[in-house]
Amino acid sequence: MNKLVNVLTTTDIHGFISNGGQPPALALQEIKEKYPNSLLMDSGDFFVGNPLTTYFCDQMQVSPMVDYANKVGFDVMVPGNHDFDHGLNYLKRQVSHLNADYVCCNVFDEEGNWIFSPSTIKEIDGIKVGVIGLLTSRMSMISDFDVTTGVVVKEALPELQKQVAALRDQVDLILVGYHGGIERDLRTHDETNYATGEDETFKLVSQTPGIDGFSCGHQHRINHGQIGDTLVVQGGYRGNCFGHMTFEFNDQNKIVKRQEEIVLTETLPAKTGDFYSEEDYQNWLAEDFDLSHLVEFLKQKFTREHLGIFISLKGKTRQQVIDSFTIPYGVRIYRLTSSEYQVFSQQDWALKQENYDSNAHDFLVLTNSYEVPEYRLTDQFVDNIFDEYSYYLTQRN
User: Fold this and answer.
1) Residue 11 near residue 45, CB atoms below 8 Å
2) pLDDT at position 105, please?
């Protein structure tokens, strides 16, 4: 009788396990009950990504995300770029309390040693499954230097190829969990992204023979399909859906059938959560926030010469500061003419610093305001200013 292995994949949970309102990720606590003979893996950006996880970092040594991961029953997990946002030591502390194996083959320390195991082997109903972890090659472009100090992220492709070659004769099934996105349409193979190296799923799979299943993420998109014989799934955001790959094996443990799909998490039984004190969290949000170093932080983060900083705030509490920065573009940079700058700079700003050459004829301004002509937009950033500034304060103190 043939054997069936269910591979279940999540990605970009970003800490959305709020006790109230039954968020989709809570239903994942029932996922392994629905799918027998399964391996459950996460492809990164799990621990960090919203004010709740900042609260966990600020108040607790071990995040409730660890308890959540253990209750869901993850077998293998992979780091995402945001999982490093509170520093490597914080991430390693969380990993040390996980029941899951934490793997990544292209993240090294400065001495050239793997920070996490490059891969792991699991056995599901007599089938040996090798799982390789992988992080986007362009970590340096999308993460601040200070949070990745001591971390060396090497090019994904050669490191992946080494691991596949090492595992292929040891296992019956090879899976990859990749925190990066898809740069081509899975059906037409047309390019959908600029080739920056941040999202390389098509390149990695097409140039690495021997991969059976590939789970990616990072872009918060939903995709599934095949590249050659390799199944590919990309499971959305906040646990709104998950990837499901099925592999059927004959009695020689050879794959005879494979199939992939994306499943909405709402198809699982709804679950509530009790992973932290909601009252304590709300009290923390209501506390006044130290804003005295925010301009200093923004100057260091967005190193531009003669950059004016103009920040509008809805108040001084953590919640009011959070509400002051629109998601996903918390701050943006505009280039204004002299007359436009004069009007803009005279508005009522909670935090303001002008920094320009006295002979300037145009002006760069960094602001969280959207009351600026769109045709003057120069750059916009998806950085979560509240979370990053909170971490900055802990490091400064």
Assistant:
1) yes
2) 98
